[in-house]
Every structure is written in C-alpha cells, then in structure tokens.
Amino acid sequence: MKPIWKISIVVLMTTVAYVAVRMISFDDDAEKFTQTYLNKEVSHHNTAQLKKISADKHTYHFLKDANHVTLKFTADNQGYQNYAYYPVRINHSETFWVTLKFNPNPIDSLILNHFSMIKIQYFRQDNNR
Q1: Residue 120: DSSP 8-state
Q2: 1 pLDDT tier (thresholds 50, 70, 90)
Q3: Exposed, middle or buried, 8 (CB in 10 Å: 0-12/13-18/19+)?
Q4: What are the angstrom distances between the C-alpha of 104 and each of 43, 52, 117?
Q5: In 3-state terms, what secondary structure has residue 128?
Q6: SS3 of 85, please?
Q7: CA-CA distance, 48 to 71, in Å (whole number)?
Q8: Cβ neighbours for 48, distance < 8 A, ≥ 6 positions apart
Q9: H or E stretch including 41?
Q10: DSSP code at position 54
Q11: How confident is residue 80, by pLDDT bands cut at 50, 70 and 90?
C-alpha cells in the first residue's frame, strides 16, 4: 500500500506543478503563437489571409511589406472568457492590438493552449497629450 501512496503523491505534485507552469506561461505561449503565425503568413506572402486578419489598411500594408515579424507583447492579457487582447510592438517600431481566441475548456487548455488569430489592428498613439 505504501508504494501506491507514494506514487499518488508524486503524480499529484507533478500535476499541480504542470498546471501552475501552464497558467504562468499563458502570455508567453500566446506571444509565440502570434509571432509564428504572422511570420508564416508573411513568408508565404499569403495576402488573402493577411487582409482577412487586418482590421485596417495600415496594418495590412505593414504586414504585407514586412519580410519578417518580431513582436513583443507590451502588456498582459486584457481579454475575457475565451478572447485574449494584447497590445503588441512589431519590429520594434509600431504598436498594434492583437485579438486571439483560445479554447476555454480547462482540460484542453492544460494539455495545449489552442489559439487562433482573430484580428490585428494598428494602434495609433496620440503624442499630443
């Protein structure tokens, strides 16, 4: 009976640690997904998909003209339920607003965060404030 008890404790501790890491790394996973997704579309010159996810002409032309996308989330998730909203700095120059949808099912999300790109739009900053 003792070996089963020890194995149960180890499995429980491993599960708790895994859940904690997944919760902490949610923003990093979303950032990695977004950068990988945008680079795939940019490198394949998939203009139809870029137009579909771009909320405005500036965003579409910025992505279409880019050779490579390097991005950094400038804040944590601003979303709710199964939507994630992030302000993003792309190629160290312009700021955009990214909308992602993810699977809200806690069991599925523990295994792998399933994201899908909904929209990206240019965030015009007013410097006259």
Answers
A1: E
A2: low
A3: exposed
A4: 30, 24, 15
A5: coil
A6: strand
A7: 21
A8: none
A9: helix 26-43
A10: B
A11: confident
Residue 26 burial (10 A CB sphere; 0-12, 13-18, 19+): middle
Number of neighbours of residue 5 by Cβ within 10 angstroms: 9
In degrees, rounded to 5, the angle at the alpha carbon of residue 76 between the alpha carbons of residues 70 and 82 is 100
- Would you say residue 2 has pLDDT above 60? yes
Write out the two tokens for 91.
């190629």
What pairs with residue 96 in β-bridges?
A: 88, 122
CA dihedral 68, 74, 78, 83 (to 10 degrees): 10
Contact between 90 and 96 under an 8 Å Cβ cutoff? The reply is yes
Helix (H, G, I), strand (E, B) or coil at 116: strand
- C-alpha 123/C-alpha 78 separation (Å) is 15
**78 within 8 A of 11, measured Cβ to Cβ:** no
